[in-house]
Design brief:
CATH class of the largest domain in chain A: Alpha Beta
Subcellular location (chain B): Cell membrane
Order of helices and strands of chain A: EEEHEEEHHHEHEHEEHHEEEEEEEEEEH
Membrane topology (chain B): Multi-pass membrane protein
CATH topology of chain B: MetI-like fold
Oligomer: heterodimer
Radius of gyration of chain B: 23 Å
Shape of chain B: globular
Mean pLDDT of chain B: 85
Mean pLDDT of chain A: 86
Helix content of chain A: 25-40%
Largest sheet of chain A: 6 strands, mixed
CATH architecture of the largest domain in chain A: 3-Layer(aba) Sandwich
Number of strands of chain A: 20
InterPro entries (chain B): Bact_Polyamine_Transport (IPR051789), MetI-like (IPR000515), MetI-like_sf (IPR035906)
CATH topology of the largest domain in chain A: Rossmann fold
Distance between the termini of chain A: 33 Å
Largest interface: A-B, 32 and 26 residues
Keywords (chain B): Cell membrane, Membrane, Transmembrane, Transmembrane helix, Transport
Order of helices and strands of chain B: HHHHHHHHHHH
Low-confidence stretches of chain B: 259-267
Number of helices of chain A: 9
CATH class of chain B: Mainly Alpha
Family (chain B): Belongs to the binding-protein-dependent transport system permease family. CysTW subfamily.
Number of strands of chain B: 0
Chain lengths: 368, 267
Amino acid sequence: MTDNTIIRFENVTKSYDSATPVLNNVSFEIERGKFYTLLGPSGCGKTTILRLIAGFMEPTSGDIYFNGNKINHVPANERQVNTVFQDYALFPHLNVFENIAFGLRIKKLKKEEITRRVLEALKFVNLEGYENREIVEMSGGQKQRVAIARAIVNDPEVILLDEPLSALDLKLRTEMQYELRELQQRLGKTFIFVTHDQEEALAMSDEIFVMNAGVIQQSGTPMDIYDEPINRFVADFIGESNIVPGVMIADYRVQFGGKDFECADKGLSPNEKVDIVIRPEDLEITTVDRGKMTVKVDTQLFRGVHYELSTFDKDGNEWLVHSTKKAAVGEEIGLDFDPEAIHVMRLNETEEEFDKRLESYGEENHAK
Amino acid sequence: MNRSSKLSKVYLALVFIILYTPIFYLIFYSFNSGGTMSSFKSFSLEHYKAVFADTRLIMILINTIIIALLSALISTAIGVIGAIGIVYLKNRKSRNALLSLNNVLIVSPDVIIGASFLILFTMVGVKLGFASVLISHIAFSVPIVVIMVLPKLQEMSSTLIDAALDLGASKREVLSRVIIPYIKPGIFAGFFLALTYSLDDFAVTFFVTGNGFTTLSVEIYSMARAGITLTINALSGLLFIVTLLLVLGYYFVTNRTKNPLRTGVPK
């Protein structure tokens, strides 16, 4: 644990009744001043983590630390965190100013200070001049900003955001992504953001926790997680990917689709069964004799920036290709790719083992 | 389409005429200088004068109003607390059981409530009079308040409470700063309904009153049995006007509190 750690989960389990736990023995650390994203499908336990940090529920077992102090039983109103709710949870009987001032009024601050801080918070979220509006007069995006202002005005150490952008339309959502990221950097506060939208997570975060079935599958920077997914679930959830079964014949040799290929992975047992991931944008269209692999084009969609081709190899594996080049449907084409584009995933590998394996490659590269 | 809507309007008008004619007939004859309702002689206010000259009647009127206001206030307080208790009860079975018990009290006939209170009061030894009437009025008003407040509470998103706690509010502050302001329209509706129920209650009061203490409805009943005088008409007319004012007051209050919650487009 470093001095920079602000929140620490130690073997936290949360279960309702006696059924399978929503959160299963989760441990992690959150560092000060970073933008974290909890990413996963609905029901994976990401909101549960948020509610545990906010203090709306207590863990069934395990401990939660905040600034080094155990906070398992500290009630929500005594915690140094504020939440932006999915439905905004603005008080309909109060206007914009009073909504933002709510927390400050509870703290019984002086009138002038409340006014000053509320107006400052409004300025921060680009809502100057809206202080006398009623909540019903605000649009979805504006309500969102009020909710954020209401959280930041209390100057908490951590701000929790529970899918705050999910109710907005696409354009506004992208806009708010930029704004939130910028706001976090300006404030320098820790943001913990919950979402099921992988693009949102990749675009905004310093660090992503990918969750599934109550367990953190993988944590790392957006690039780490995108380039080196630990397992089939992460690879599938983050971006589009081609995942096929393969066999690791020897170090740097992998077999899939009935052929041997050169790859960048080593240290696996010989003939170990693995999953192979190749991102669609890493596949390049070429002629049949030049390609490393021969596939038949099944469908082709124009996506604007690129064509999306669905192709099948002889074994019936589907290969999704993103290419700026066009191909004819029904035609046989060759696919070319770098050895580095092949990502090998061991079955049932833990995050620790995975990290160790990746590190060993790095050392080797340095040695060279 | 057009014809049927015209027809339905005529039907509606007919229903209202049938409902309101007796009342206006009654009030109309309260201005009759003659002593009966068979023929209208000339306009006069003598029956109203008689009402105001009768100090006993005025005392009864004041009693009725005091009972109505007190019972409405107390039952609103109890009902609001009860409704909040019911809504935030964790166990669904006991919550439904409590709600059913509450609803049974609303639908059960006044006669039964009155009779059972009479038995209770005589058993316990409460002297029949002001206190017994007040207690029984509170008792039958509480379920009404609960029913009026409950929908507002259920409509309130639980994240509002989470948000208030998150912003540092204690449980007490959550209640006073979020829950109560949010359900205010329901509280007002419950209060006014309790007020009108208490004002015009006859059956329950008839059972539990005694020692010379009466309310207006019981008094009018006994006056009518002694023989019709137009003083009753005048009294009924006054009561009708008071009720009308109450309804208008309720309408005004709820409209004002509802206004900020109206769904509106940004200006």
